[in-house]
Amino acid sequence: MSNQSKPLVVIAEDEKDMASMIAAQLEVAGMQSQICHEAAHAHRFLKNNFANLLLLDLHLPDSSGFSLMEKLRNSGIEVPVIFLTGDNTEVKKVKGLEMGGDDYITKPFGFPELIARIHAVLRRAETSGDALITKNASTMDEEFNFCGATINPHRLEIEFPDGDLEKIGRKELGIFVFLQANPDTILTRKNLIHSVWGMHADVRSRSLDQYIVKIRDLYKRHGLSTDAFRTVHGVGYIYDVP
Fold first, then answer.
1. Which DSSP string do the residues of 48-75 spell out, in sequence order?
2. pLDDT digits (tens, 9 = 90+) for 6-24
3. Whole-prediction pTM
4. DSSP conformation letters of 180-206
5. N or C of the chain: less Cβ packing under 10 Å?
6. 8-state DSSP, 236
7. Each residue of 19-64: pLDDT tens digit?
8. Could you report how far apart the first and last alpha carbons of the chain are, in Å?
């Protein structure tokens, strides 16, 4: 099996012997690993590299696993996470899962169980991305209203009050979804681009502005105002919900 086809698992674990043993077991199971003994190292690596999974110890020397998870999500890094910890309290398990963790394994654990859990999370992550058409939008999303028209992600359509239907592109849907999810908040162009195109996309503000113009022209043709969706000059946009 080539390295390119092997899943990459980041091991954020401060116990060096434990990290090395996990890495050895992953290698036997046909996976690559990257060991990070500190949260800052894991964040730096994931910010600059794609990984299929993060094994995250709750207790790292420079930060808690929960804090690192929050920092990753705020940075737009959606890597699947399995928490590793010696703390078996129900409260922490629930917190980890509610934060978006995919699984929670308590130390000590058996390596066959760990490998099985990793495979299960990787399978879920692979299939969950099938419906994604932008970084933030999926054809499985529910319909929603935006400035008086109904956005239908299932069909990539927008329905206007007069009953007319228009097709919309993937990026337009991603923009609609992001604005709808973040009302009454000033959104920078960079934030919008990262959310729709991804953290490492090479997209300029001018390209984003062209999509915005396209959306506004679409509404104008059907007699609807986009006054609630305003440009904040020099910064980005804001969607004001009445």
1. HS--SEEEEESEETTEEHHHHHHHHHHT
2. 899 999 999 999 999 999 9
3. 0.58
4. HHSTTS-EEHHHHHHHHH-TT----HH
5. C
6. E
7. 999 999 999 999 999 999 999 999 999 988 889 999 999 999 999 9
8. 56
